[in-house]
Amino acid sequence: MNFPAAAVRGQLDRILSSAGFANSERMSRFLRFVVEQALAGRGSELKEYLVGVEVFDRGEGYDPRVDPIVRVEARRLRSKLSAYYESEGAADPVRIDLPTGRYCPRFSRPGARTSHPVPGGSGAMAVLPFVNLSSEPDNDYFSDGLTQELIHALTKVEGLRVVAWNSAVQLKSEAHDFRRIREHLNASRVLTGSVRRAGGQLRITAQLIETATGVYIWSESYDRQMEDLFAVQGEISRAIVRALRMKLAAQAGAAAPSNLEAYNLYLRGRYYASRRTTEGLDRSTRCFAEAVRLDPDFALGYAGLADSYTLLAEYGAGAPVEMVVKALAAARRALEIDPTLAEANSSLGCILSVYEWQWREAERHFLRAIELNPGYVTAHHWYGSDHLAFLGRFDQAMEELEVARQLDPLSAILIENCGMVHMMKGQFDRAMDEYRKVLDLDPYFYKGYTAMGRVRALQGRYDEAVELLEKGWSLGGEVPSIISALGQVHGAAGRAEEARACLARLEQMSRRRYVPSTCFAIVYLGLGESSRVLDHLEMACERHDIPLASIGVHPIYQPLRGHPRFQQLLRRVGLAGVTAAAP
Fold it and tell me: How many domains does the chain have?
């Protein structure tokens, strides 16, 4: 349908000024480029290569077969346009769509649709943890694990936004409070159910319910043998898709392992890992290791092992040279078995970023993970916080974190990472707002307090910083990074004796456990001893300390930026061209 160019441009301006696009520079640039090309009669020239070069600043050597950024961003653009027309743009006179498989936009009258409407509105689906009705309470890991796998399968349904496990599990006890679920998770539909396991027999019930009305959209029960577990997951996923009148874009779920006991261990491992404690991660690692021992071709088991080792390294539970090497081997083995596994691509992307400093290769894996499963929260989360932010690409980082946050709105660590990006940008008030939200969600999450303390230290409000850091210390225990932050604050406040006491504590701690060299460097920063700071940062570089990945953008290192040794460090970490936010 032909429209006057002025009408299309007017509609384009309305879209770009909307809430969904106003803070998304990259999406706005993408949409404006393809619309203007189409209006100029060059729609047939809109190919993947051209968009990659003109919109995403890829060089002449750009190869779309290797770098899927255009396909990934096109999928996001279609989703944003759909959300716009289902909300504030519902009455607009012109509809702009990007048809699937094309980059030339289509202009149509209002009411024209590119896909079938989803019953129950445009909100997400929440899959609440299935209730364990088995006689053994210990079988909670099985019902929770089954729920997580079902969430993972449904994230692969094109057009369906599924709330992540971390957020859904927080409303586990409120399965029938649909108003609260709708309010807190922006979920228009909720999937609930139960699992009864007795020996080799399995009974699963599932119900899909509209949160606005409490009306059942679909309900079913399954009596199966344990050996049929994988088929049941697929049956449930496809039944939900049929109930929502949506087309399954990819096969739901990963290929079933050949060993049921291995899969059982995998579910147990995910259950323990979701606790995000050192003890839980240790137990999850043992479960995943046993799973892949029983089934050496179990790709999901290796991906779980990679995630657990990576998180243990990030939490400082062991030396990176030990933990990350194991994570790297597990992720690569998972990809050897199944190159289409989003989890393994995401885990490898994180390792290549924060440990190997192979930033370009890391980005390729993150984008591949998102392409394979756009609903996989961890891929968006780690791509934003552990890659884009460290490269100084803050706007893109916030876009990815916002996608993750829509999928996992009650994740305290995700909100804390959003605050971290604001802190790196020098937006201290916005960072503090995010950290307050973290503590509203979980008043006992130590990172909320320590993050606020670090911001107050950057603002020169040292007494407040100490109070917040000590509160975090009381909740988090002997975490080296908290002690180093306290030492830095005491040093900056002129309390050298207290700062050196923190150094002594770190030194004593290092005799019995791994302590990153960056921790010592930060205390010496507070004391103003630049030479000692650089000594420890260079040692951190030799050890591949994970916190070193942020030195290109973290404002705490601002006093060192002009030093030749610091510039050499940036080159060694692959961050020489990174521009930090203005102090």
Answer: 5
